[in-house]
Amino acid sequence: MNLLSVSSPHLTRTGGTGDVMLLVILATLPGLTALTYFFGWGNLINVVWATTIAVASEALILKLRGRSLGFYLRDYSAVVTGVLLGLALPPFAPWWLTLVAVSFAIIIAKHLYGGLGNNLFNPAMIGYALVLIAFPVEMTSWIAPRSLASATGEIAPFVDTLNVIFPFHSTTTFDAMTMATPLDAFKHKGDLTAEQVWAAEAVLSAKSWMAWQFVSLGYLIGGAYLLYRKVFTWHAPISMLLTLALISAAFWLYAPNSFASPQLHLLGGATMLAAFFIITDPVTSATSVKGKLIYGGLIGLLIFMIRTWGNYPDAVAFSVLLMNFAAPFIDIYSQPRTYGHKIHK
Amino acid sequence: MNRGLRDFHGGIHPPENKDLSTQVAIETAPIPDKLVLPLQQHVGQQSKALVSEGDYVLKGQLIAAAEGYVSTALHAPTSGVIASIQNASIPHPSGLSGSCIIIESDRKDEWGKRLQPLDYEKVDVSELLKRIREAGIAGLGGAGFPTSVKLNPSAENTIVTLIINAAECEPYITADDMLMRERSEQVIKGIQIIAHMLKPVGCLPVECLIGIEDNKPEAAETLEQTVKQLHLEHEISVVRIPTKYPSGGEKQLIQILTGKEVPNGGIPADVGIVCQNLGTAVAVYKAVALGEPLISRITTLTGRALEHPKNLEVLIGTPIRSLLNHCGLQQIKLNRLIIGGPMMGVTINDLDTPIIKSTNCVLASTSEELPNPTPQQACIRCGMCAEACPASLLPQQLYWYSKTKDFDKALNHNLLDCIECGACTYVCPSHIPLVQYYRFAKGEIRAQEHDHTKSEHAKQRFEARQHRLAEEAAQKEAKRRERSKAAKLRQQKATIPPHNSESESNSEDKAAVIQAALERVKSKKDKTSKLTPEVSNGSAAREEE
Ligand code: SF4
Ligand code: SF4
């Protein structure tokens, strides 16, 4: 008689890690759509290009490590890293910038640490931080949103965008259209008061600001969907957003002219993307409920501090990386109380 | 009845598949040709066989006696001849075999002398306890803990609540469900007896709660009606609890019904609770009111490899093969054979494995309903396992520590509080067989502890011996000196007059030599071993003596 001898449980839920990752990818669509609508084809091209590099790098490493390609590629974790970087990098980031960021993320930050599940740092954020430090100029030139980009309110045509990113056949440039991000603009406001900045900077004009808000809203919608599908719990994102909102509100109320408003903090940069797509990466975050609250809250705090007093206009990558590093320690001190045990000291 | 129910952390909702086996009434399984009765069907010491090969036994006759306090008696489930006492497959996770009494039935099913039925209100509680022990009752739900032990809580614990576990939260299993539907009177009367036994003289009656998942409305209603008919509304409450696995875990059920937690390392009696399985209550009723020992039980035969899944009243010792055939087993479809439910059951390979006192279900599954395990992927630390864990553990951390054999950390994360319910494995998107890792780690830790105590004992023995030898040597040395001194003295006596302080310095000498020898042993010991505090304290105390 040849019956299966395995130990319990014999029943498991269907659906695997690959399905979870696919949901995450699906949930980036509202944000990506908003980006494409307001800022042109750049991010969409970036996403496709970054994903291609990510999958190729992953396949290469798997091959070198002698792992089964089909099995490991089907966890789609490389695709997620690619998509997230594609969203985070500036729309007209040149092809090599993306190549450097993505391949570094997959090869060094992920596989040199032992592959999915073993990496200490969020691969996408490592890739992002690397290019941010190495190529600050390319990384801080965002482009003007639709309606400000050209007199007709059109976005740059697809082919032109492609030519800017892969400048092999032409020398098209969009110099005229590059523009800082809202946070960047505010950061370099110099002696102007907040009111003056909002009036003076094109990127903070009503139309442009709306574009940025819509993109953030897109990520928020995607995040809400993932929450609804129970891909992650609310603890880390809400803790991060709440901390950031409260602290920035406190400072802003105290000195509205020198500090950015909570609105700018929440909607003006990569905050929403970070809250729902970056810090929710389970591998690199704290694991218990209490741990996630601490983890998210500290990221919110760091984002505020680095944005306000640091050298970089946006601070998501550095804040996340710092907390990635702290996550194992948070885990040690945030064990939940086991059934039947007294409260932990 | 509505009570403020508490929830327990985590839990899952696997597909129930219960209606598979509730379509027909409980049937009596045919008497098999051969019965296999393991001597170890319970937690505790193995029973001692009282019969030998060739003996003729009658139904209900005692064939093995309880050996020690935590043990149970065993009775012949039917009349027949003892064919042999030998090793045979038993339903145990280890897949090992155990010593079994094999009875060849004569198909007459002839009763021997029955025990005297007792009126529980008229006899002493100790009489009832004795009866339950005589009847060989061990928990019919879980591990099979001897019931008489559980019903005899230590005097320090005042029992205020009796919980009857009728949650039956595992998918597929319906034995208790059908028992409640069809034999509710026996159930309630059994509970009455147990409640009576737990009530200390002169105290208030214990509160009695029957916890039942709300996916069994019919059973709950029947029980409620019976309670009403017997006018026990003030003593027994049927409590419907939300269906969620593992609500039937003892600790979880206690938490749901009372909000109390069994302290770590303790038992329910520490918080004034005794928990009994529903089937056990029926066995108690039969033993006390009818004088029948535990020789049969209700077992669910289910799974999609069976044509006619149903609940059977089976004799303990019936080989599973005959039951499967009775239910129309389709051999080709059978892929996994499980004793117990799909969450905590044990797979078996040998169809001749018998039904024992705690076998509530035999699940003959096809590869479609319980697919073969998928290859495991990396843990992405998603935390779904931690959300599902009823013990509020961090399964992902335990997994990591078990895998890397970092057992100290695993213990630190309370690995030993894992009840192996399998909820974490069920939800894991990476299909990691987490519980397997925990079993491995627990086994290793147990083995290490065993080795540790063994080597600790050896060490203590060794040290004691060294100590003794040193003392002996010192004494010998002292004696030798005394002798040589005496000899010298004798020589000196001839010349010099005797010295007064002689004998004094002599004994001082002796003490010094012993002290030195002890010191040597001690320093050696300090160098060679790192003792646990108690042991070193102990030896320190010895030295001070
Ligand atoms: S559910 Fe599985 S993948 Fe998720 S944290 Fe637990 S063990 Fe890891
Ligand atoms: S098997 Fe253990 S770790 Fe897993 S959910 Fe159950 S109690 Fe928690």
Task: Count up the helices of chain B.
Answer: 15
Largest sheet of chain A: 2 strands, antiparallel
> How many individual β-strands of chain A?
2
Largest chain-chain contact? A-B, 44 and 71 residues
CATH superfamily of the largest domain in chain B: NADH-ubiquinone oxidoreductase 51kDa subunit
The proportion of residues forming helix of chain B, as a percent range, comes to 25-40%
Beta-strand level of the residues of chain B, as a percent range?
A: 15-25%
Question: Can you walk through the features of this model?
Answer:
The complex is a heterodimer of chains A (345) and B (545). Helix content of chain A is 62%, strand content 1%. Chain A is mostly helical and 345 residues long. In chain A, helix 1 (17-27) runs antiparallel to helix 12 (206-228), helix 2 packs antiparallel against helix 12 (206-228) and helix 16 (289-309) runs antiparallel to helix 17 (316-333). The longest helix of chain A has 23 residues, at 42-64. The model of chain A has no long low-confidence stretch (mean pLDDT 85). Chain B has two domains: 19-365, Rossmann fold (3-Layer(aba) Sandwich); 373-477, no CATH class. Chain B is built from 15 helices and 17 strands. A six-stranded mixed beta sheet of chain B has the order 1-14-13-17-15-16, sandwiched between helices. In chain B, a hairpin with a 7-residue loop joins strand 7 (80-89) and strand 8. In chain B, helix 3 (175-182) packs parallel to helix 5 (217-229), helix 4 packs across helix 7 and helix 13 (434-495) packs antiparallel against helix 14. The radius of gyration of chain B is 31 Å and the shape is globular. At the A-B interface, helix 1 of A face strand 15, strand 16, helix 12 and helix 13 of B. The structure holds iron/sulfur cluster (2 copies). One iron/sulfur cluster is lined by residues 388-391, 393, 395, 418-424, 434-435 of chain B.
